[in-house]
Amino acid sequence: MRRLKMILVATFAMGTSVAFADRLSDFKEAVEAANAGRGCDGIPYSDIRSSCKTAQSDVHDFCDGRRGPVTCGSEEITRQAKNAVEQEKRNVAALQEKKSKLESDKSRAGTDEEKNKIAKDVDQVERDIYEGGKKVDQAEKDLEGRKRFVNEAIYNLDKCIDHRRAVMNNFASALDKVRNESETQELKDLATQLRNKYEASKSGHEEQITARRNALDTCKNARP
Asked: Of 43, 72, 147, 163, which is most buried with the most CB atoms under 10 A?
């Protein structure tokens, strides 16, 4: 029985030693990754690191333009598109008014020569109205395209901010854990290095989120 207890104690001690060696290796690799700027690989905890990588992948998709636009340009672009529609409609309305006046003049014309001349003018105005209608259609398509573009950018920016915040939260969770690592001095020193890296990068994450929020506000103001 005593021999069995000694074996169990030795086995437990060996298992604990192996587990600690693995943890120490994880921390060393995390410090190396953090120093190299490899993002989520700088987290020594596998569960948090995995969650962080998933969120980071989504950040690249939604923040870097892979899923579509992440900026809308100035609000003036939308105003110009709306003004173009209104201007083309006014042009057609003016042509229709001109046609109505010509037809009235034609009905009052005293000679066939005058009527024929006015009829030609009416034909030309009708062609202009037809072309004007096509310009209205194109301007409306351009405005609708602008609307789709802005709405897509708003969606992407919303997702970008959510995923960027998720990455930041993963690092916040890792930061809470490394603060309490003190099993040995070596592990504590590695944890301190990671803590300092996380704290230094926090402002970078916040700046990115602020920049995307500003872009989102611009897009919302640019909606037709």
From this structure: 43
